[in-house]
TrEMBL record:
Pfam families: HTH_17
Lineage of producing organism: Bacteria, Bacillati, Bacillota, Negativicutes, Acidaminococcales
Protein name, entry field: DNA binding domain-containing protein, excisionase family
Domain Helix-turn-helix per the UniProt entry, residue ranges: 9-58
């Protein structure tokens, strides 16, 4: 599922992987459900952070 992506994901990558829209992705970032950071105004999401989020959701 994640093998085709690099270690740092974009918002678009997260949207594609989770099959969600941009607003939902930004909500996850804002609520700190997925650890991420910004560089030059662009969100950067560590792949490991997204993997942890998916695993947490799977367990719930």
């Amino acid at each position: 599922m994640f093998s085709e992506y690099g270690d740092i994901l974009s918002v678009e990558d997260v949207m594609e992987i989770l099959n969600i829209g941009k607003n939902a992705a930004y909500r996850l970032f804002r609520d700190k459900a997925i650890r991420c950071f910004r560089i030059n105004g662009r969100w950067k999401i560590p792949k490991q952070s997204l993997m942890e989020y998916v695993e947490e959701q799977r367990r719930a």
